[in-house]
Each structure stands twice: as C-alpha cells, then as structure tokens.
Amino acid sequence: MGIFSRRQSATIEQTQAVGPRTPFPAADATGVALDPALRALTGQWTIDRPHSRIGFSVRHAMVTTVRGAFADYDSTLYFDGARPSQSRAELVIRVASVDTGVEQRDAHLIGTDFFDARRYPEMVFRSTSTIHEGAESFRMTGDLTIRGITRPVELQLDYLGSVLDPFGYERAGFDATTTIDRTDWGLVYNQRLEAGGAMVSEKVRLQFDISAIRSIPLA
C-alpha cells in the first residue's frame, strides 16, 4: 500500500517474464506456506513510483465518482514468503500532495474542512498482522492514522506476479483495497442535497496499485 520503502528508480517501460506464474497454495495449519515460488519473494522491497499509484475514490453528489492520488509518501515492506504472518508494512503519506485533477478541490481537501494539512501533515498506515488466505490473496490488518485519530483497517492484498526487468531488478506487483468511513477519522464535512443525500459520500475506497522492486538488484 504503497506499502513499500521509498526509493528513486528508473522508469522502466518494458519487462520480461521470469517465468509462468504459479498459484500459491493455502497455508498449512501452522500458517506456513510451503510453495517455493512464494518463498522466493521473501525480503525487502521498494516502490517504483512511476508505475505505482496510492489513490482513493469517493462518490460525489450521489451520481459521479471523484478519484485522486497522493504523490508524496515514504513506505517500507518486508515480505516473508515462508511465514506470511511475519510480513510487515508501513506507509507515511504527505496529505498536501493530494491530486484530484482540480486545483480548487485539492486546496479544499488539504484545508481545515478535510485533512487540515498544516496541523496533521501526514496520514500513516502501519500493519499489525498479515494472513495468507490461499492462492495469491492475503489479508493485511493495520492501524490507519488520519488527523491524529488512529483506527484499525483491513486491506485485501493480491499478488499479481513477478518479472525480471532489463535493468536486472526483480519486480513484483500487488493490488490492495479497502473501504473506510471517513467520519471515523473526523472527516465530517459535508453539504446536503435538496433532493436528499450528501454532496460527498462518507464511504471512501482506498486503492494501492503497487509495482515493487527487490531492494538489491539481481546479479
């Protein structure tokens, strides 16, 4: 979720597959996955920003969807393929970097009605547990802090595969999603519509489209 450590890397447009993607088996009774392909992913990974997106979507005026993303963030990920429960992640987002494509709307979002970026410049996710649900799916639980309020959230995390790129880096793809109620974090601003309903939905979908590279390039 953006769950990866910050690192500048070259923009890579072409990749070649390491090999066919093999589905992961479910963990055994002790929670230990035995598939060698899953074990091979064990280690520290870093985000490739040009090919990743930390975003959100929210219903506007009950009829359209507004989408945005955060451009400035730091994060770390350690993935343990033999013991997925030992995997951990942290993501620190600078909320002032929000971009919805409309400058006036972005200014409103970082103001006191929403993120109040001057008082609370960072939004933070720290994982507390990871469960391998079988195949290529995981459930990651963690604490999400917004505006100084910390509450638990649960991410659906899917592994998309891995490749070896022309620069000698092993690259892995992940998608993670969750839906939160923004009012739980003090984001209560809204306007009511004459026909009923709210201008901005209280439900917000968080989306993490991640391309990660192993911290040390392959020889």
- Following the backbone from N to C, one meets helices and strands in this order, namely EHEEEEEEHEEEEE
Measured as a percent range, the helix fraction is under 10%
Main sheet, how many strands, which sense, barrel? 8 strands, antiparallel, barrel
Question: Which regions have little confidence, pLDDT < 50, spanning 5+ residues?
Answer: 1-30
- Helix-and-strand structural type: mainly beta
The helix count comes to 2
Strand order of the largest sheet: 2-5-6-8-9-10-11-12
Q: What is the CA–CA distance across the termini?
A: 27 Å
Calculate Rg over CA atoms: 19 Å
> Strand portion, in percent?
over 45%
Count of spatially separate domains:
1
Mean pLDDT: 82
Count of DSSP E strands? 12
CATH topology: Lipocalin
- CATH superfamily label: Lipid/polyisoprenoid-binding, YceI-like
CATH architecture: Beta Barrel
The backbone outline, from C-alpha atoms, is elongated
Overall CATH class: Mainly Beta
Structure, explained:
The chain has helices at residues 36-39, 103-109, and strands at 16-17, 43-47, 53-60, 64-70, 73-79, 88-94, 98-99, 122-134, 137-146, 149-164, 170-181, 200-214. By secondary structure, it is mainly beta. The protein has one domain (36-214): Lipocalin (Beta Barrel). It has an eight-stranded antiparallel β-barrel with strand order 2-5-6-8-9-10-11-12. It is elongated and about 60 Å long. It starts with 15 loop residues before the first strand and ends in a 5-residue tail after the last strand. InterPro entries: Lipid/polyisoprenoid-bd_YceI, TTHA0802/YceI-like_sf. Pfam families: YceI.
